[in-house]
Amino acid sequence: MNSQQGFRAELKSRQHGAVAIIVALSLVALVGMLGLVLDLGHLYVTKTELQNAADAASLSGAKELNGRLTGINNAINRAIEAAGRNKYNLHSQTLVITSADIRVGACPTTGCMVPITSITTDALAANKTFLEVNSGSHNLGTWFAQVLPSIATNMATSAVAVAGKYAADITPVAICRMPDPGTTNELGYERGISYKVSSANPIGPGTMFWIDPESNVPGVCPVTNTNGTRPYVCAGKTSFTPVVGGTVNTNTGISTPQLESLDSRFGSYAPQGACDPTTAPPDSNVKEYLYNQNESVSGSPNKWMVIPNPPALDSLPLNQNITFVDAATNGTCSNSAPCKPKPYSLRTARDYGVLWSRYRRAGNTVSDWSGLYAGVTATNYPEASPYEQTSGEFFQAPTGSNPTVPGRRTLNMVILDCSTAGGVCRQATVLGVGRFFMQRKANVPSDRDIYVEFGGLLPTPLPTSDIKLYR
Predict the structure, then answer these.
(1) 51-55, 244-248, 308-312, 414-418: which range is least confident on average?
(2) Strand 410-417, strand 424-438: pairing
(3) How far apart are CA 58 and CA 366, in angstroms?
(4) pLDDT confidence of residue 78
């Protein structure tokens, strides 16, 4: 009996020892697993911190890309500065990047990217609209997980972000380059002078080009119809950045709905235009400047342009629909003979239409008018321009309660080599981006067309754009 009791006591003692061993081993495993959870949490938080820093650096740098070497250099500085404002490793260490961690490209994919330090000229910078930032790999020492077998004593993480331009400030209406008119010009255009968009093309009077607002890939045209292009015309945007020297896909013919979309800038929201005032607000000044407006009408161009008779034309004539007297400019436009403005030496005061409604000729003042425009003088010309007035006879506020945006009547339009344009999804080379001011509504029953005053080429090859993260 006593021997049986002794055996049971010994067995119980052995069981207690086994349980203690199991508990000890389990505690090691549990502590290891808890440590693994904590270390993985540390890794995740640090990864997020690095990603936020890379995102901020790429967004800040991409805003500086302007198609010039100066923009490249500014992008480097801004990206490094933005990265340095961020911390990682539970907000304990400042992220430091260098130019070696930054790349740029013409598209957001890895294959498009090159080291930013390889961009050394304006020509190389011209099409670089995307910027990539790599945070570099950063080691983190593990806290508890290393108690587990085969767990490294260090973990590493990194982050990469790409940001770039989208929704560029380009109205998807195109205009063709013209030959030098014999005076100061930019791709054939003269500042402060009016043009009829449908006449500046080699196809024929009344035809206008527009560009696919979603793609410049050769032969890939997702928007080839009026309905597809209207939102972009309303907002004055394209979803890619046309680059000087690059190509866009052109389509031919602008219809009433597209013209109504343009007229949203005047606070006109006709049903076919399908514009939303929140994304396509009216301009703050919707006063129209009409070439044939009676002098007695408040705000008439004749209030500041003094000539014996009102202008005979609404825009400078092109050899699309008139005959010039000299052989060099005779005939109609064609692909091999682009439209040409009436030569400066042949113009009279009545040839110009409305002058200087927003822009003036570079370097000229009102005192130069009589020499520029065959004896025309300018009186009561407001400074800076009729359009830029905020009250008085040259100003008209839009009706309604919609918010207004100054400058909405200025259309940034690509100027193309139109020798290959026309039809559907035809490529054309971008020669520049010009500022063109809408002087009046486009959807006018008696004359559905776009009349614009040229304000010069954009100072950099790339228009302003919204910036977004791509990856």
Answers:
(1) 308-312
(2) antiparallel
(3) 46
(4) 97
Taking the whole predicted model, whether its pTM rises above 0.85 is answered as no
What letter does residue 180 receive in the DSSP assignment? -
Q: Are 426 and 201 in contact (CB under 8 A)?
A: no
Q: Reduce the DSSP state of residue 124 to 3 states and report it.
A: helix
Reference 442, options 276, 207, 261; nearest CA is 261
Write out the H or E segment, with its range, that includes residue 194: strand 194-196
Question: In b/e form, how buried is each residue of 49-67, taking b as 16+ CB within 10 angstroms?
Answer: bbbbbbbbbbbbbbbbbbb
Angle at which helix 2-62 crosses helix 69-84, to 10 degrees, equals 150
pLDDT band at 17 (very low <50, low <70, confident <90, very high): low
Sequence-separated contacts (24+) of 88-92 with Cβ below 8 Å: 88/46, 88/49, 88/50, 88/53, 88/135, 88/138, 89/46, 89/49, 89/138, 89/140, 90/42, 90/45, 90/46, 90/49, 91/49
pLDDT at 183: 72
The token pair at 171 is 């109205």
Averaged pLDDT score across all residues of the chain: 85
134: which 2 tokens? 């790599």
Per-residue DSSP letter, 74: H
Domain positions in the chain = 2-165, 173-465
Residue 324 above 50 pLDDT? Answer: no
